[in-house]
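[Meeting: bench + compute handoff]

Bench side (C.D.) handed over the final construct sequence. Compute side (W.E.) agreed to return the predicted structure before the next meeting so the bench team could plan truncations. Sequence as handed over:
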Amino acid sequence: MPAPEDDLKLLTEAAEDAGAIAMRYWRRDPKAWDKGGDAGPVTEADLAVNDALQARLAAARPDYGWLSEESEADAARLDAYRCFIIDPIDGTRAFIDGQDSFSHSLAVAEGDRIVAAVVHLPARKLTYTATAGGPALLNGRPIAPTDAPLGGARVLTYRAAFEPHHWKGGHVPPIRREFRSSLAWRLCLVAEGQFDAALSLRAAWEWDIAAGSLIAERAGALATERGGGRMRFNSARAMVEGMLVAGPRLHGQLLDALAR
């Protein structure tokens, strides 16, 4: 069985190739359509990247399972010792709009834990990486989260998360909300200390958060489900019950402030 470091090298090279493919479509009016069922948009670039990643990664690791936003569900992954968890383009709406904040999110799960992860933003030339036993890096340099307190914390989340009923006593704490389209990148921005926390009270697809959760953890943040439980991956549902990612002090304070 390859070491996580070997899987990380494979993921990194595959992510760079994915970026080259995506950039051929970016800001060139790619064909796009809605997937229906509130699944959001998809473009020809998403599918081209997905096909290239699946061909490369499956050839290199034929015994690994495969879970991707743009592939048909394959129950065989549940019996695999390791499984790729892939979002070919995270932040598709940003990609369609010509914004540079889209990313490629690639991870390997061993059992229900992530052991290797890459989040690559080709238009920004940013590559975040981590293994379960190593540091979190941005373009090869170590990163770390902030140690911010609750008051004034900058939290990456969507508008509805600030509705009073989500918070104890209906009181939203004195935090500042900001937003980025790519969920994977939000976790990495917390990991590198650009923002203090990332929060989702909705169930999240595994491919959106698998890679970023390990990067955040190895940087020194806590990355849990919205209720504080451990994230588990390669599940039958392929979803995690929300997420809360922050430095240890702020993570506890946000958890205490949320309504249960």
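W.E. noted at the follow-up: DSSP finds six helices and 16 strands in the chain. C.D. will use this when planning the next construct.
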